[in-house]
From TrEMBL:
The keyword Endoplasmic reticulum does not apply. It comes from the Bacteria. Keywords: Carbohydrate metabolism, Glycogen metabolism, Glycosyltransferase, Phosphoprotein, Pyridoxal phosphate, Transferase. Phosphorylase is an important allosteric enzyme in carbohydrate metabolism. Enzymes from different sources differ in their regulatory mechanisms and in their natural substrates. However, all known phosphorylases share catalytic and structural properties. GO terms for cellular component: cytoplasm. Its EC number is 2.4.1.1. It is an enzyme of class 2 (transferase). This is Alpha-1,4 glucan phosphorylase. Its cofactor is pyridoxal 5'-phosphate. It holds the Pfam family Phosphorylase. Belongs to the glycogen phosphorylase family.
Amino acid sequence: MTQPLIPIDQCPIQIEDDRTGTNVETLKRAFADNLFYLQGKYESLATQDDFYMALAYTLRDRLLSRWLKTMKTYMEKDVKVVYYLSAEFLMGRHMGNSLINLHLYDRVRQAVEESGLDLDEILEHEPDPGLGNGGLGRLAACFVDSLATLEIPAVGYGIRYEFGIFTQAIRDGWQAEVPDKWLRFGNPWEIAHPDQAVEVKLGGHTEMYHNEKGEYKVRWIPANRVVGIPYDTPVPGYDTNTVNPLRLWRAEASDDFNFDAFNAGNYDGAVAEKMRSETISKVLYPNDNTPQGKQLRLEQQFFFVSCSLQDIIRTHLLRHPSLHNLHDTAAIQLNDTHPAVAIAEMMRLLMDEHEMDWNTAWRVTQKTFSYTNHTLLPEALEKWSVGLFEYLLPRHLEIIYEINRRFLEDVKRWYPGDDNLISRLSLIDESGEKYVRMANLACVGSHAVNGVAALHTQLLKQDTLRDFYKLWPGKFINKTNGVTPRRWILMCNPKLAELYNSKIGEGWLKDLSQLKQLEKYVDDPDFCQQWREIKLHNKRQLAQYIWEHNGIEVDPHSMFDIQVKRIHEYKRQHLNLLHIIALYNQIKQNPDQHIVPCTFIFGGKAAPGYFMAKLIIKLTNSVADVINHDPDVRGRLKIVFLNNFNVSLGQRIYPAADLSEQVSTAGKEASGTGNMKFAMNGAMTIGTLDGANIEIREEAGEENFFLFGLTAQEVADTKAKGYNPRDYYSSNPSLKAVIDRIAAGYFSHGDKELFKPLVDSLMYHDQYMLFADYQAYVDCHKQVSKTYSDQDKWTRMSILNALRMAKFSSDRTIREYCNEIWNVQPVPIEMEEYSQENA
Ligand code: CGF
């Protein structure tokens, strides 16, 4: 008789073996074992990649029992789960995170060292999985970390792009894009589950039919089918047993389809179709805040949404006979409008595939979904041409029309005769070519809509989504963004973490407000001295990196003034450049004048098709070239553009900053999250009253923040009055000198054409009002320099900034989502602790 297989965690004899044990000897054995059996290498022939892979498997093994137990607990307890739908997850490297969350850093370091290797080198070998553009994708990654840490049942759903965000190279000062082959050597962190593959339909047409009960129904006859294969990556919580999955879908051609073509002898056609299907998960669109109306992008969105919803429904039906109570087991969050087609797909699945009537399906849908808006830029609000929608998703378009019809009926009843209101609220933009407005769909189909910082939510209510706010004020809620202190303090700034631990223990890592207790040391000379030493240490490390990568020698004692983020005109990297050139002009006029030595560091990618952003990169490098080599400057100003800004580079940069540049035009940056990472690591902010800057200033204290510039209201008022940038140019000699220097070709070897588009755009439009804010910004920088010269004062301000950032832990943000939007509770995962001593 065959014996049923006993799950490993229920085996009567628990053995601390090579896959679970955590003492140094066991770790060493496991590492060697994986190198031999999984990488197929002797140590003498192994490369750094082999070592990295072997160590990654060693760690993944140690996550598995917690991971499977987490899944089993959720199933058995039939808990409500948060499903976070996001087209981007910018996770950053996994290995360091796993070491921290498994509390294995020291033992693994020892095991690796005793094996004759260097852990830091191995850590550096992990490719940075760049499955996101910037803030939105990184926010999703911080959120899944906090969800697991807070023991919230959650699944992140997204796309397993074969190519993530491009690698940025700098050639002759210009950005060049290089494909990101992050999967080249395989991905040891993920586990594929082809058994849970789902089919996704595309194209075709719909038809009416009678079902068995004699009712009229609609069915979708697709032209094409694609299969979604899930790949799960464990997301361990810090200091808990919870390990939640990040489930990313890969597109594969459906066998049926190929088979037909093969049978017909059309081999090329079958292969071409296979490639076409698999293209869906090939590459991440490298645009941030600028949607591109490309068919493939809509296919990507629908693909991962359909896979995920089918998966959610399957999970629900394992424990419930019907879908009427789906909202009791599932809270689905739409991270921006990229997954908003989920509203229509859920309706289709409920009605067409699960026989639910419209009203019930709509009630379930609305109760299940909530939507986060991430942008105020009107050009960034996604819309899809009705023609494309109909071609790819004919059934969904019908459903959207019906949602719209019913919705507008209501509006007409509530606001009779207001046709303008109707056309603004409509899910279909009919002002010219017809478009489906995804934000409108998301607002109508969700029970909650949130912005990502207080000002942003306020502006959504009074501007971008004001008509919806008027209809449903109760739906709108603010959820100020946050970032995980595990990655953004502990992992990236270990010396600072050590200092905190030595004073108050490790509790702050799960409750950042505990840092407030350290305020009593703000005047303690020893503490301040240690604080300065840590910053200097971090600056030295960054200086070393700059030397190795850019060949530029920078002085770690100079002020590190840093702006790293996507390059975008609204973020105003060029305002920063104008100030640098103004300082340079001063030096040229009077080379002996006192100037606080400063290293200006930039980093960030530009969307490949965004000419002006690319020109800003070129200008940065050109200004750097001239100023860094001018003997009059005597090294007092250095400018560095660090190429390929990504999560790993961010981990080096934030801890080394003295000054954080957050200078977007007020009312344009929804929140920002880099601003939080800088402040948590003790950088002072120079910033406008925009996004989360406002709240950072409130928390840090007005006196600990360098504020400048117009408010969002003043920006609007100035524009309304008729803004003319040339007035500022002609009345401000310093500004004029700066612009004239660029226009004269001083930074382009006399070429007056190169930067003309940038100069003209400022002189004749200046959409983001750099000129209006120029003088305030320059003056504010004077204040910064003066303060920096008083190191005691600066240190005090830096300490207070870092200690007062509790609000910006993503744990706080996630708790608010749980309580106010998702209605979910923590579910602790009970496990017998493996004794680390006996292991
Ligand atoms: O989302 C952003 C970022 N660029 O990804 N937007 N989008 N789309 C906003 O511009 C940021 O201000 C915001 O912090 C981030 C996450 O909410």
